[in-house]
Amino acid sequence: MYQIECESSPHEWMLGNAAMRIQDSRAEIAEYIRANKEDIVLIENCTAATASVIRAADFRAGNTVIHLSTAYGMVKNCIAHYASASGAHVVEVQVEFSGKEMAPVGRNGDSLELVLAKTIDEAASKGSHVALVTIDYISSCPGVIMPVHAMAKACKSRGVPCLLDGAHVLGQLKLNCFALEASGVTFFMSDAHKWLFSPKGSAMLWVTRSAQASVHPSVIGAVCSNSQLTSFRPEVLRNLSDYEVRFQYTGTRDYTPMIAVRDALSFRKRIGENSILGYNHGLALWAQNWLSTIWRTEILVPPECTAAMAHVRIPVQSFSAALLLNRMLKDNKAMHIMGFSLPAREQFGESVPTHWIRPCMQLFISRDDVRAFGFAVQELAPRCESVASCFTKWQSVSRAKCPMITPCIATALAHKITLGFSVTPAQTALKQDGSAHELAGGSRMQHNAARTCAVAAVAKYSAGSLGSGGQACSIAGEIMRYSSTSQAFPLERKYKFSEARDTQYERSVYDVGQSPNSVIDIMGTSSTSFTDA
Ligand SMILES: Cc1ncc(COP(=O)(O)O)c(C=O)c1O
Q1: What secondary structure letter does DSSP report for 342?
Q2: Which of 6, 12, 97, 492 is the most exposed, fewest CB within 10 Å of its CB?
């Protein structure tokens, strides 16, 4: 609708009509987050908002900038970029997760606000001015609600500006910007295109009045043209502060996502804000309890730190298996779930990293979807684990036996068969085509490629045997034999899954596959965040 309005009269649209509508959206969002409209500007995304705030902060040689270890990658990158250009120091405050009984804490179990306060004081004691502290409201991955008021108070009492990254909070939590400001938040940004139901390219930036003078958009726009006859309509800008005017128009672009924020909010009103938040939160809590029970694993944080993103440990031991599982869920079951790894939690006696998923709950997800997902993981996890461990064994043996050819093998595997783990860094492996499908059914054997490469044939063999369970050792034995020869493994030997069929389960998977509910992570993120921990 707004795009039609724009295209039917682009000139009027760009020089005033869009701006009028953006102001309506600002007014609605101000009411929604309990803030003054004058302190809020609409912006394309949190990435742009971060750049605006960081450029306004006092980054200079000898100054310190602090962020949490959970800060979103873009925030860390942006801080690192401006810090290295200016000579400022960057300090990261570690966040630790201590299980479902306890909110996230800092290193050694101290509260995050205490650790943050100590970090600021330490910098000050060395004569370094703290230019900015960045904290997450709901961190990205894991998606955990942080003790933001307490941390903001630690900043305020020390006179340090605080950027609150609330990319995930609009539409996930009830907000009170007046309260955040009273605690000490200086800048607060949030996306409307994540949870609020607004189109991509819509976000907001709130800045406390006293800091607005130095905040500029990341691209400098203009509210004028070179002709006085065709300039921005003056009445649109009447009574706006410089800060508001600066963000009003940043060049010819699509402003309709920002304008649609208003419609997203009125849609939410129709459904009922409490119903949306209550349904999503309730489903997240139920999902993490149910999944952790059937998988016999655990939940990451207590209910009060959970909004609409659940966190459950997946029943696999290795990173390779986790990565493979994530890929197979996506390719074979059309279930895309954000996954992540946590370093070993020493306080729990762990010596290896653990692997988790972060399903996002939204109105169109039901308990049946969660159940289908839970059963799919139950079915696939042991296979992924067995192929991952088999492959790792083979890798270590082949390395020991023929160290010279191992690098060639790795490359061949990456290019020809790509099991999706171990041999290449995660992202590269994920980009390779076809492996998960092959793992699932051995259906798309690439005979030509494989014939030219004994190693590829051997690896295909291990992949094709995934479903037969319990064969890992014998397979490993065969792999070892073949990996030390140049002889091609007999490709005609095909292995089929011998899975137990559960009709109830199949029905639910079918339902899920046929409906939009199949995408459990509604955030539309396109890759996993499994990283080598
Ligand atoms: C915590 C957090 N901050 C910032 C961003 C960046 O948001 P955008 O891509 O809309 O700029 C994200 C994106 O996922 C995020 O999760």
Answers
A1: E
A2: 492
Report the C-alpha gap between 54 and 447 in whole angstroms.
54
Are the C-beta atoms of residues 130 and 63 closer than 8 Å to each other? yes
Please give the CATH architecture assigned to the domain spanning 273-379: Alpha-Beta Complex (3.90)
Cα(141) to centroid(ligand 1), Å = 11
Helix 46-56 with 73-86: angle, nearest 10 deg = 30
Query: Is any atom of ligand 1 closer than 6 Å to the C-beta of 168?
Result: yes
The pLDDT of 213-219, averaged and rounded, is 95
Is there an atom of ligand 1 within 6 Å of 172 CB?
A: no
The answer to whether 377 and 329 are in contact (CB under 8 A) is: yes
Task: Give yes or no for a contact between 19 and 236, defined as CB atoms under 8 angstroms apart.
Answer: yes
Q: In testing the pocket of ligand 1, which one of 46, 50, 360 has its CB within 8 Å of the most ligand atoms? A: 46
Q: Taken in order 168, 172, 178, 179, is the CA torsion positive or negative?
A: negative
Ligand 1 pocket, residue 140 CB under 6 Å: yes
**513 pLDDT tier (thresholds 50, 70, 90):** very low
pLDDT in tens, 440-465: 333 333 333 333 232 222 222 222 22
Name every residue whose Cβ is closer than 8 Å to that of residue 304 and which is 6 or more positions away in sequence: 103, 145
Distance 219 CA to ligand 1 centre (A): 19
**C-alpha 47 – ligand 1 centre gap (Å):** 7
Q: Express each pLDDT in 335-377 by its tens digit.
A: 999 999 999 988 888 999 999 999 999 999 999 999 999 999 9
Q: How far is the CA of 189 from the centre of ligand 1 (A)?
A: 10
In the predicted model, is pLDDT for residue 178 greater than 70?
A: yes
Average pLDDT score over residue span 393-407: 66
How far, in Å, CA of 98 to CA of 314, rounded? 17
pLDDT at residue 179, as a whole number: 98
Q: Give yes or no for a contact between 22 and 203, defined as CB atoms under 8 angstroms apart.
A: no
- Round to whole Å and give the CA distance between 167 and 140: 8
The chain-wide mean pLDDT, for the chain, equals: 80
Angle between helices 319-333 and 503-514 (to 10 degrees): 70
At the top level of CATH, the class of 2-271 is: alpha beta
Identify the CA nearest to 66 among candidates 139, 207, 163. Answer: 163
Strand partners, 205: 41, 189
Ligand 1 contact via 165 beta carbon (within 6 Å): yes
Ligand 1 and 136: CB distance under 6 A: yes
The CA 1 to ligand 1 mean position distance, Å, reads: 27
Give distance in angstroms: CA of 74 to centre of ligand 1: 7
For residue 71, give the ligand 1 atom closest to its CA.
1
Q: Is 285 left (phi over 0), alpha (psi -120 to 50) or beta?
A: alpha
Domain ranges of the chain: 2-271, 273-379, 394-524
Q: What is the pTM of this model?
A: 0.78
